[in-house]
Specification:
Blueprint (H helix, E strand, L loop, with lengths): L1 H15 L4 H29 L3 H4 L14 H32 L1 E3 L7 H26 L2 H6 L20 H18 L2 E3 H18 L21 H10 L10 H5 L12
Parallel strand pairs: 1-2
Helix pairs in contact: 2-4, 2-8, 4-7, 5-7
Bound molecules: zinc ion (2 copies).
Subcellular location: Membrane
Organism: Adineta ricciae
Main location: membrane
Length: 266
Protein backbone atom coordinates (compact mmCIF):
# COMPACT_ATOMS: atom_id res chain seq x y z
CA UNK A 1 0.00 0.00 0.00
CA UNK A 2 2.78 2.37 0.95
CA UNK A 3 4.69 1.92 -2.30
CA UNK A 4 1.59 2.47 -4.43
CA UNK A 5 0.53 5.55 -2.47
CA UNK A 6 4.00 6.98 -2.55
CA UNK A 7 4.20 6.42 -6.29
CA UNK A 8 0.81 8.05 -6.79
CA UNK A 9 1.65 11.31 -5.01
CA UNK A 10 5.19 11.44 -6.35
CA UNK A 11 3.97 10.82 -9.89
CA UNK A 12 1.34 13.51 -9.49
CA UNK A 13 3.96 15.96 -8.29
CA UNK A 14 6.71 15.06 -10.76
CA UNK A 15 4.67 14.40 -13.88
CA UNK A 16 1.94 17.02 -13.66
CA UNK A 17 3.13 19.77 -11.30
CA UNK A 18 6.76 20.35 -12.32
CA UNK A 19 8.05 18.59 -9.13
CA UNK A 20 6.63 21.47 -7.09
CA UNK A 21 5.33 20.20 -3.71
CA UNK A 22 3.67 23.57 -3.13
CA UNK A 23 1.71 23.35 -6.38
CA UNK A 24 0.73 19.70 -5.76
CA UNK A 25 -0.42 20.55 -2.23
CA UNK A 26 -2.41 23.61 -3.34
CA UNK A 27 -4.17 21.83 -6.22
CA UNK A 28 -4.99 18.70 -4.16
CA UNK A 29 -6.39 20.66 -1.20
CA UNK A 30 -8.37 22.93 -3.56
CA UNK A 31 -9.90 19.96 -5.41
CA UNK A 32 -10.76 18.24 -2.11
CA UNK A 33 -12.55 21.33 -0.82
CA UNK A 34 -14.45 21.94 -4.05
CA UNK A 35 -15.51 18.30 -4.43
CA UNK A 36 -17.19 18.15 -1.00
CA UNK A 37 -18.46 21.72 -1.20
CA UNK A 38 -20.23 21.43 -4.55
CA UNK A 39 -21.44 17.83 -4.39
CA UNK A 40 -23.12 18.15 -0.98
CA UNK A 41 -24.39 21.72 -1.49
CA UNK A 42 -25.83 21.06 -4.94
CA UNK A 43 -27.64 18.03 -3.52
CA UNK A 44 -29.09 20.21 -0.73
CA UNK A 45 -30.12 22.96 -3.16
CA UNK A 46 -31.72 20.34 -5.41
CA UNK A 47 -33.93 19.11 -2.57
CA UNK A 48 -34.80 22.73 -1.70
CA UNK A 49 -36.07 23.24 -5.26
CA UNK A 50 -37.93 19.92 -5.52
CA UNK A 51 -40.52 18.40 -3.24
CA UNK A 52 -39.45 14.84 -2.58
CA UNK A 53 -41.65 13.39 0.19
CA UNK A 54 -39.21 10.68 1.30
CA UNK A 55 -36.53 13.37 1.88
CA UNK A 56 -38.84 16.21 2.98
CA UNK A 57 -39.95 14.14 5.96
CA UNK A 58 -36.47 14.84 7.44
CA UNK A 59 -36.70 18.64 6.99
CA UNK A 60 -36.30 20.11 10.46
CA UNK A 61 -38.09 23.48 10.29
CA UNK A 62 -41.22 22.37 8.46
CA UNK A 63 -43.12 25.40 9.78
CA UNK A 64 -41.02 27.64 7.46
CA UNK A 65 -41.27 27.73 3.65
CA UNK A 66 -38.43 26.30 1.61
CA UNK A 67 -35.58 28.57 0.55
CA UNK A 68 -36.76 28.76 -3.08
CA UNK A 69 -39.62 30.95 -1.80
CA UNK A 70 -37.17 33.34 -0.11
CA UNK A 71 -35.40 35.24 -2.95
CA UNK A 72 -33.61 37.69 -0.61
CA UNK A 73 -31.87 34.86 1.21
CA UNK A 74 -30.98 33.13 -2.06
CA UNK A 75 -29.35 36.36 -3.25
CA UNK A 76 -27.34 36.53 -0.01
CA UNK A 77 -26.22 32.94 -0.57
CA UNK A 78 -25.12 33.67 -4.14
CA UNK A 79 -23.12 36.74 -3.11
CA UNK A 80 -21.63 34.98 -0.06
CA UNK A 81 -20.57 31.97 -2.14
CA UNK A 82 -18.92 34.20 -4.75
CA UNK A 83 -16.93 36.10 -2.09
CA UNK A 84 -15.93 32.87 -0.38
CA UNK A 85 -14.72 31.28 -3.62
CA UNK A 86 -12.66 34.38 -4.32
CA UNK A 87 -11.12 34.41 -0.83
CA UNK A 88 -10.31 30.69 -1.19
CA UNK A 89 -8.29 31.30 -4.36
CA UNK A 90 -6.47 34.22 -2.73
CA UNK A 91 -5.64 32.50 0.59
CA UNK A 92 -5.15 28.80 -0.21
CA UNK A 93 -1.70 29.29 -1.81
CA UNK A 94 -0.41 30.38 1.64
CA UNK A 95 -1.62 27.29 3.50
CA UNK A 96 1.38 25.17 2.44
CA UNK A 97 3.82 27.75 3.84
CA UNK A 98 1.81 28.08 7.05
CA UNK A 99 1.87 24.32 7.65
CA UNK A 100 5.60 24.22 6.93
CA UNK A 101 6.43 26.99 9.41
CA UNK A 102 6.77 24.77 12.50
CA UNK A 103 6.74 21.37 10.84
CA UNK A 104 6.82 19.68 7.49
CA UNK A 105 4.15 18.67 4.98
CA UNK A 106 5.06 15.42 3.21
CA UNK A 107 4.14 15.05 -0.42
CA UNK A 108 6.70 12.58 -1.80
CA UNK A 109 6.90 10.24 1.20
CA UNK A 110 4.64 7.23 1.81
CA UNK A 111 1.14 7.71 3.16
CA UNK A 112 1.22 7.22 6.98
CA UNK A 113 -0.25 4.10 8.58
CA UNK A 114 -3.99 4.08 9.27
CA UNK A 115 -3.25 4.37 13.02
CA UNK A 116 -1.16 7.51 12.52
CA UNK A 117 -3.89 9.05 10.37
CA UNK A 118 -6.57 8.25 12.97
CA UNK A 119 -4.71 9.67 15.96
CA UNK A 120 -3.66 12.80 14.06
CA UNK A 121 -7.23 13.44 12.90
CA UNK A 122 -8.48 12.84 16.46
CA UNK A 123 -6.14 15.56 17.78
CA UNK A 124 -7.20 17.88 14.91
CA UNK A 125 -10.88 17.35 15.85
CA UNK A 126 -10.33 17.87 19.60
CA UNK A 127 -8.32 21.07 19.05
CA UNK A 128 -10.77 22.43 16.47
CA UNK A 129 -13.79 21.66 18.63
CA UNK A 130 -12.20 23.29 21.70
CA UNK A 131 -11.28 26.51 19.88
CA UNK A 132 -14.50 26.63 17.87
CA UNK A 133 -16.66 26.21 20.99
CA UNK A 134 -14.95 28.95 23.01
CA UNK A 135 -14.65 31.52 20.20
CA UNK A 136 -18.25 30.82 19.18
CA UNK A 137 -19.33 31.17 22.84
CA UNK A 138 -17.56 34.57 22.98
CA UNK A 139 -19.09 35.64 19.66
CA UNK A 140 -22.47 35.31 21.36
CA UNK A 141 -21.64 37.96 23.98
CA UNK A 142 -23.57 41.15 23.31
CA UNK A 143 -20.94 43.37 21.61
CA UNK A 144 -19.28 40.66 19.51
CA UNK A 145 -22.62 39.28 18.42
CA UNK A 146 -23.90 42.67 17.32
CA UNK A 147 -20.75 43.69 15.46
CA UNK A 148 -19.45 40.39 14.09
CA UNK A 149 -21.44 37.18 14.50
CA UNK A 150 -24.94 38.49 13.71
CA UNK A 151 -24.18 38.29 9.99
CA UNK A 152 -23.97 34.48 10.18
CA UNK A 153 -27.30 34.36 12.00
CA UNK A 154 -29.46 36.07 9.34
CA UNK A 155 -30.37 32.50 8.35
CA UNK A 156 -32.73 31.18 11.00
CA UNK A 157 -33.36 28.22 8.73
CA UNK A 158 -29.96 27.24 7.33
CA UNK A 159 -28.86 25.26 4.30
CA UNK A 160 -25.38 23.81 3.69
CA UNK A 161 -23.79 26.79 1.96
CA UNK A 162 -24.74 29.15 4.85
CA UNK A 163 -21.44 28.34 6.55
CA UNK A 164 -19.67 30.73 4.15
CA UNK A 165 -21.84 33.69 5.26
CA UNK A 166 -19.79 35.26 8.03
CA UNK A 167 -17.81 38.34 8.96
CA UNK A 168 -14.14 38.09 7.85
CA UNK A 169 -13.02 38.17 11.52
CA UNK A 170 -15.26 35.25 12.29
CA UNK A 171 -14.00 33.34 9.24
CA UNK A 172 -10.42 33.98 10.29
CA UNK A 173 -10.62 33.19 14.01
CA UNK A 174 -13.52 30.81 14.49
CA UNK A 175 -13.14 28.91 11.22
CA UNK A 176 -9.57 29.09 9.86
CA UNK A 177 -7.57 29.36 13.10
CA UNK A 178 -9.59 26.61 14.82
CA UNK A 179 -9.18 24.28 11.83
CA UNK A 180 -5.44 24.80 11.33
CA UNK A 181 -4.09 25.35 14.85
CA UNK A 182 -3.29 21.65 15.48
CA UNK A 183 -1.95 20.84 11.98
CA UNK A 184 0.36 23.90 12.15
CA UNK A 185 2.12 22.60 15.26
CA UNK A 186 2.40 18.98 14.12
CA UNK A 187 5.99 18.16 13.14
CA UNK A 188 5.11 15.76 10.33
CA UNK A 189 1.84 15.75 8.42
CA UNK A 190 1.10 14.16 5.08
CA UNK A 191 -0.81 15.79 2.23
CA UNK A 192 -3.17 12.81 2.30
CA UNK A 193 -4.04 13.43 5.99
CA UNK A 194 -4.54 17.15 5.31
CA UNK A 195 -6.94 16.35 2.42
CA UNK A 196 -8.85 13.96 4.69
CA UNK A 197 -9.04 16.68 7.35
CA UNK A 198 -10.43 19.21 4.84
CA UNK A 199 -12.95 16.61 3.68
CA UNK A 200 -14.10 15.88 7.27
CA UNK A 201 -14.36 19.52 8.35
CA UNK A 202 -16.18 20.75 5.23
CA UNK A 203 -18.55 17.76 5.25
CA UNK A 204 -19.24 18.33 8.96
CA UNK A 205 -20.10 22.00 8.62
CA UNK A 206 -22.28 21.56 5.49
CA UNK A 207 -24.08 18.71 7.22
CA UNK A 208 -24.60 20.79 10.37
CA UNK A 209 -26.17 23.60 8.29
CA UNK A 210 -28.14 21.29 5.97
CA UNK A 211 -31.56 21.82 7.58
CA UNK A 212 -32.34 18.10 7.16
CA UNK A 213 -31.84 15.48 9.84
CA UNK A 214 -30.89 12.89 7.23
CA UNK A 215 -30.18 9.35 8.41
CA UNK A 216 -27.13 7.31 7.27
CA UNK A 217 -25.17 10.21 5.73
CA UNK A 218 -25.05 12.25 8.96
CA UNK A 219 -22.23 11.18 11.30
CA UNK A 220 -24.33 11.96 14.39
CA UNK A 221 -26.84 9.36 13.23
CA UNK A 222 -24.32 6.73 14.36
CA UNK A 223 -23.03 8.46 17.53
CA UNK A 224 -25.82 10.82 18.67
CA UNK A 225 -24.44 11.20 22.21
CA UNK A 226 -20.91 12.01 21.17
CA UNK A 227 -21.22 14.02 17.95
CA UNK A 228 -22.81 17.41 17.43
CA UNK A 229 -24.54 17.94 14.11
CA UNK A 230 -27.61 19.07 12.23
CA UNK A 231 -30.15 19.00 15.06
CA UNK A 232 -27.85 20.98 17.36
CA UNK A 233 -26.70 23.60 14.85
CA UNK A 234 -30.17 24.02 13.35
CA UNK A 235 -31.49 24.77 16.85
CA UNK A 236 -28.60 27.23 17.25
CA UNK A 237 -29.62 29.12 14.09
CA UNK A 238 -33.31 29.13 14.92
CA UNK A 239 -32.87 30.48 18.45
CA UNK A 240 -29.45 32.23 18.14
CA UNK A 241 -28.24 30.54 21.32
CA UNK A 242 -27.06 27.15 22.70
CA UNK A 243 -25.06 24.39 20.92
CA UNK A 244 -21.79 26.26 20.32
CA UNK A 245 -19.65 23.19 19.51
CA UNK A 246 -18.75 21.92 16.03
CA UNK A 247 -17.78 18.22 15.97
CA UNK A 248 -18.56 17.16 19.53
CA UNK A 249 -21.22 17.74 22.16
CA UNK A 250 -18.54 17.60 24.88
CA UNK A 251 -18.17 21.31 25.74
CA UNK A 252 -21.89 22.02 25.35
CA UNK A 253 -22.69 19.26 27.83
CA UNK A 254 -20.05 20.53 30.26
CA UNK A 255 -21.30 24.14 29.98
CA UNK A 256 -24.96 23.12 30.02
CA UNK A 257 -25.58 24.67 26.59
CA UNK A 258 -26.66 21.48 24.82
CA UNK A 259 -30.24 21.66 23.48
CA UNK A 260 -32.21 19.85 20.79
CA UNK A 261 -35.33 20.76 18.82
CA UNK A 262 -38.54 19.52 20.29
CA UNK A 263 -39.83 18.36 16.92
CA UNK A 264 -43.10 17.09 18.38
CA UNK A 265 -44.07 20.65 19.42
CA UNK A 266 -42.61 22.54 16.46
ZN1 LIG B 1 -23.92 28.26 11.54
ZN1 LIG C 1 -23.69 31.40 16.54
Amino acid sequence: MNTTSSTFFSALCDEYFYSSEWLTFTVCTYITFQTVFWSYNLFLLYIEYHDIPCIDQYRIQKHRVKLRFQPDLLRQLRNGTFKHQLSLILTLPFLYHMLNYFGHVSVHSSIPSILTIIWQLTIFILAEDFLFFWTHYLFHTRWLYKHIHKQHHIFKQPTGVVFVIADPWELLIQNQLAVWIAPIFFKEKHLFTICLWIFLRVYQTINAHSGYDLPYISPQYYFPWLLSGTLQHDYHHQHAKMNYGSFLTLWDRLMNTHRLHNLAIE
